[in-house]
Amino acid sequence: MTKEALQSEARLLAAPKSSFVWGVSTSSFQIEGAAHIDGRGDSIWDVYCRKPGTVKNGDTGETACDHYHRYGEDVALMRDLRIDAYRFSISWSRLLPRGRGAVNEHGLAFYDRLIDALLAAGIEPWICLYHWDLPQALHELGGWQNRDIAGWFADYAALVARRYGDRVKRFATFNEPCVFTLFGYGLGWNAPGIADADALHKAIHHVNLSHGAAIGALRTTVPQASVGAIHNRQPCFPAGTSPNDAAAAVKFAGYWNDAFPYPQHFACYPAALAEAVEPFQKPGDMALIAQPVDWFGLNHYSPHYIKADHNVIGATFGAPPPNVPRTTIGWPIVPDAFRDTLLDVHRRFSLPIYILENGTATDDTLDGAGHIEDAGRIAYLRAYIDAMQEAIAAGVDVRGYFVWSLLDNFEWTSGYSQRFGLTYVDFATQRRIPKASARWYANLIAANRRRLVQPISGNCTEAAMATR
């Protein structure tokens, strides 16, 4: 992308708040590697990747982006992006190889080094306690199907808070619990590969219990902490015109959008799954789950188009209408759905919103000059940030936006075939190459921070760009 194009794309939020947070997000299993180094225990994803046919090309997270050894280089990339904050997750099995009991000092020390490097670079660390990588040892004790996990998770949260709470004040309990429960316990598509209705509903309830227990542990240990959870919310439309597809879309939305925010905020389950979860509830559970939080973490990529199915919830993904544009991996591009989701979250939950994942995978390749001109990603980010601006103008209290992701990484069952990063990673050499989108995002952040222009359609000036 040319300098002139970058200038024209660096748009400003109308009347931006000085506290608006620009950031990037990653997760431990997807970037850290070092799977068998310094005492780390197996997670369910380590074990799942070793099963033939589960991950594209037989890819694993054993090396990933080798962030465990290259975190200094990655912090430098973040500094060049001019971000305010970095949201990352902790590997539970790196701190507690068995999930509980003996603590691994090597693992604790790694995150000490990372946090200190971030702070030295002027970047605020945001910790997510859980991004899908349950210690395998706990899975063998029942994992999310075992009610005792709420206590195990609270103990883990307290350990993290005690060690890092002197430097970290932003904590999320879970990232996208709807995905790892539905895909991992209901549909069998992700680790640990279970497809069972009771397993799914136990997992949903026990994750919610764990959220509530962890909020209590975080507030007790770090009284000044700002805490929340990160939910994936996406409109669910019928894929076809049949009544069965319409009913399936409503039911799927109950699991995808409401199974966790509703009990956590309103102390009740949505109608789509209330009866199925009821056998696993005990008196006092909903009061424990519905602990007050400080913000709503939102991940959003696209709407879903849902059709009826014979699986455990009676619904699955269908194809979007042929006139809906798609990313190179087939996800619909509908910025208006992002705006509408922000309006809906604001109306339902009345909390400040941080967008903690938004982005797209594109077919990124090096050109003859060794650059990656990812115009498709820039167009996507521009459109979705404009949609966010529309929501802000309509009164939605959005306080931050984080791109997924800093680096190309291990994308779960897609392995390394999907590239979401602002930074290209050559996985054979671990060389990092910032893409055109990284330059675009850095200029956007810098321009908004300086408040050079008020209208969102305004362009950065040559003088402003010269200070880059």
UniProtKB/TrEMBL annotation:
Enzyme class, broadest EC rank: hydrolase
Pfam family membership, one: Glyco_hydro_1
UniProt GO molecular function: beta-glucosidase activity
Keyword terms, alphabetized: Carbohydrate metabolism, Cellulose degradation, Glycosidase, Hydrolase, Polysaccharide degradation
Xref: InterPro entries: GH (IPR017853), GH_1_N_CS (IPR033132), Glyco_hydro_1 (IPR001360), Glyco_hydro_1_beta-glucosidase (IPR017736)
Its EC number(s): 3.2.1.21
Catalytic activity reported: Hydrolysis of terminal, non-reducing beta-D-glucosyl residues with release of beta-D-glucose
UniProt family annotation: Belongs to the glycosyl hydrolase 1 family.
Name of the featured protein: Beta-glucosidase
Lineage, highest ranks first: Bacteria, Pseudomonadati, Pseudomonadota, Alphaproteobacteria, Hyphomicrobiales
